[in-house]
Amino acid sequence: HDTLTASVQLILDSLSPDALALACLFSTVSSSPLSVKEINEAPGDEWHFMGEVLSLEDALGGLLQYSLIEREGDEVQMHELVQHLIWASMDVSRLVSALVAAEALVLQSLPQDGGSLVGRPQMERLLPHLLQLIANMEAFDELLQAPTAFLLNRLGSYYSSRGEEEHGRELLQKGLNYL
3-state DSSP: the chain helix, strand, coil percent, rounded to 5? Predict the structure, then answer.
């Protein structure tokens, strides 16, 4: 385990700032595929490659060079083991920055009405990322309570719209408790 951790740390140290930021972001969401288009359109000042396709492609190329991610067409994903090793290598400041950037990415990608027939497929595709992001944000207690509450609100509303009112109410109440 120590050898693997040290190897990953050497790789992270050799990445460009954009590739490192992207690797950190990938470590905070699910290992399910993410759309390159959605990543490119995500808001965020810290992630200055977003909105600039060539810089994003360079960052993705840096991650692909070391097999930190897999890419198939417009979708990229990071293996859970790689996510865990990167997560464990980050200090609290970098973790919080990555979580905030991931929150912006997921929120921007979520449909306005995830329970509608039109929005449900997109919501279901992003659901693993939303669940993992909430779980990771909950680990930071008071620091990320407001963003976590907002994500729980979106998730609770989604479950309620699917006819899972009790589960939806539980999530909505959990979000209210954070505020």
Answer: 70, 5, 25
Spatial separation of the C-alpha atoms in residues 77 and 39, rounded to whole Å: 12
Q: What is the CA radius of gyration of the chain?
A: 16
- How far apart CA 71 and CA 78 sit, in angstroms, is 9
Residues paired with 154 in a beta bridge: none
CB 33 within 8 A of CB 77: yes
Q: Measure the CA angle with vertex 88, ends 137 and 54; round to 5°.
A: 80
Q: Render pLDDT for 67-116 as a digit per residue (tens, 0 to 9).
A: 999 999 999 999 999 999 999 999 998 999 899 889 988 988 888 776 67
* Full DSSP string of 118-155: TTHHHHHHHHHHHHHHHHHHHTTGGGGHHHHHHHHHHH
- DSSP-derived secondary structure for 44-79: -SS-TTTT-HHHHHHHHHHHHHTTSSEEETTEEE--
